[in-house]
């Protein structure tokens, strides 16, 4: 093992210190390689590990994105982390955990000068390239809180040569956008601390908490309002104009046949926008 290899890894001691005594990160498992942090966290959740446990791996050999897609995760370049949560939320609020995690990631990036945005529901963009995604897996338990595993994959210090050709030019990284390497440890700590704060507020259930999350998410998601979109799901494509986010986290779309709420689907976005989506 070389000094360079050590330097490229997340600094576990610094990360623990930065997370302090927060719920998220109260238990912390670190791996050099895993097939999938979400799969490992799911096994831990089913074995009774407490909420707040995080699973971090330098590399994933079978990382998954939305709709079963593979998430490319070479060692030492990105962030591959999953968090176990056990909120006593009604089932209809579980989808908000995806939105909450995407917001935490984008806010942490913006604090560091990276003007990241969100593409509904779970893609993180820099410019016109996808640099990250969120994947939540919920298992409802009769008479008990849901076990939710929220995974985040973020491309940090990748160069174009680190991606398979079929992922270019859609895929990108912080380094490709900014021209400089980023401190993965500090960025991860900032994201997890942001997520911990938002999760604590959600669990507290104060008036307007969900509405504020939706408002913040919408402000970070330019395609969520006033954009011409086409949604491809299991049936016929749905075309219309994006009209915000519903309390459930669904995308509202105004179509020629009336308003629709889209919970699942692949979204393509036109470059055209109306005055409301300026």
Task: Write a compact overview of the structure shown.
The chain is an alpha+beta fold and 278 residues long.
Key attributes of the depicted protein:
BirA Bifunctional Protein, domain 2, alpha+beta, disordered C terminus, globular, 7 helices, five-stranded antiparallel beta sheet, single chain, disordered N terminus, 28% strand, SH3 type barrels, 278 residues, 12 strands
Textual characterization of the structure:
The chain is of the alpha+beta class. The protein folds into 2 domains: 3-219, Bira Bifunctional Protein, Domain 2 (BirA Bifunctional Protein, domain 2); 224-277, SH3 type barrels. 27% of the residues lie in helices and 28% in strands. It contains 7 helices and 12 strands. Strands 1-2-3-7-6-5-4 form a 7-stranded mixed β-sheet, with helices on both faces. It has a 5-stranded antiparallel β-sheet with strand order 11-10-9-8-12. β8 and β9 (238-245) form a beta hairpin. α2 packs parallel to α6 (184-204), α4 crosses α6 (184-204) and α4 packs across α7. It is globular, with a radius of gyration of 18 Å.
């Amino acid at each position: 093992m070389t000094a360079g290899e050590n330097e490229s890894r997340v600094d576990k001691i610094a990360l623990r210190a930065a997370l302090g005594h927060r719920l998220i990160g109260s238990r912390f498992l670190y791996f050099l390689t895993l097939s999938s942090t979400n799969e490992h966290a799911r096994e831990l959740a089913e074995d009774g590990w407490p909420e707040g446990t995080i699973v971090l791996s330098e590399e994933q050999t079978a990382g998954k994105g939305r709709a079963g897609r593979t998430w490319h995760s070479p060692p030492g370049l990105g962030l591959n982390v999953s968090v176990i949560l056990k909120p006593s939320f009604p089932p209809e609020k579980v989808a908000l955990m995806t939105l909450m995690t995407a917001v935490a990631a984008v806010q942490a990036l913006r604090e560091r000068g990276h003007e990241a945005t969100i593409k509904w529901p779970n893609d993180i963009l820099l410019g016109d390239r996808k640099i990250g995604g969120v994947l939540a897996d919920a298992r409802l338990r009769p008479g008990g809180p849901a076990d939710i595993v929220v995974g985040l994959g973020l491309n940090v210090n990748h160069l174009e040569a680190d991606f398979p050709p079929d992922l270019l030019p859609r895929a990108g990284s912080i380094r490709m956008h900014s021209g400089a390497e980023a401190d993965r440890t500090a960025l991860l700590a900032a994201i997890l601390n942001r997520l911990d704060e938002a999760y604590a507020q959600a669990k507290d259930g104060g008036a307007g908490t969900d509405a504020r999350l939706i408002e913040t998410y919408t402000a970070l998601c330019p395609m969520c309002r006033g954009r011409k979109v086409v949604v491809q799901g299991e049936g016929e494509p749905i075309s219309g104009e994006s009209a915000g986010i519903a309390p459930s986290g669904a995308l509202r779309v105004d179509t020629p046949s009336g308003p629709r709420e889209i919970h699942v689907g692949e979204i393509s976005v036109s470059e055209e926008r109306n005055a409301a989506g300026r």
